[in-house]
Amino acid sequence: MAKVPRPPRSKPLLTDEGGQLQSSRVRKRNPAQPALPFDPMPDRVGPALALLKQSPPAKGYSWEVKWDGYRVHVHVEASRIRVLTRGGYDWSHRFPSIVDAARELGPASMILDGEACVFDEQGRSDFNLLQSSLGAVGRRSGNLVSPATMMAFDLIYFDGHDLRGLEYLSRRHLLEDLLQGKESAIRLSEEIDADPVELLDHACSLGLEGIVGKKRDSVYRSGKTGDWIKCKCVQSEAFFIVGYEPSVGALGGFGSLLLAAYRGDHLTYVGSVGTGFKERASLVLRTTMDKLLWRRKQPPVPYSGKRKVVWIQPTLIAEIEYRAWTSDNKLRHASYKGLREVQDNAEVYRLDENEGVGTRSAR
Fold first, then answer.
1. What's residue 17's pLDDT?
2. Would you call 66 a catalytic residue per the annotation?
3. Catalytic pick from 11, 28, 59, 66?
């Protein structure tokens, strides 16, 4: 006996084989059922900053290499991609490789936090190389395009959700998933599972700038909160250039730069730097300084030295590497690394009014 065919469990798509396809009527959302929230993308987020420590704590932090470059936030939206400096300036036209890499990450909206770097032949981030392609030298030679790579170390907005209230480890896992297997101008800044004291020693032996630690359970907070800390192999800070010592035989026509830091609301002389200059950068720097000559009788900072000095307006900010401070608050073993740009919102060193040597403070 033949089986009777079972009727279909679902209704056929067409009630009339010759008719048009019809979908079921869209029902209105039940007001009692909450809609999934989406957070608007912030136009700008102040970066979380690392607090300087002399030695790393043993527990509670994740560690990675400290990169020597420009801090940037990459905002990826459907209609545009922005590369914002700490000062909030859009440098997307100066970092086209980073923009192209961000575009390849997909259609999702996001804000990546990281450092724009240029690497030397040994694979170390080099601020001088970055400056030669991007900074004062690059701007005046017409070369405004840098081949910089962004080392990404945080994800603070993703796919319609603000992640700043999420703990660091969770943000980190999302970032790793996003950049997994990507070989482009946006790379993951790898975490290193090692004893931080040994890690710092190893970083210094390789000629790196230092290491950065982040509290694993911390949310993303702008400014120096202590959630992020840094330990440096060599001290490097920003100072005003207030003059130069002319020299016929030296590169660029100057023997050294005179530097100043803040003490309260005033500037004070903190010594000079006469090493670290490259010929091309020196020539451009001398031309720039000669356009900023100080026209007043008294110098811009109190000075009791006997050297012949050409004083300039305190507007140029130099990144200076040094080993220590003298007892009278002068830099020891200083070396010039390059000019910082106003758009980078560089912090100028501030001397403690009571003890002398202090910490950096924003301009």
1. 55
2. yes
3. 66
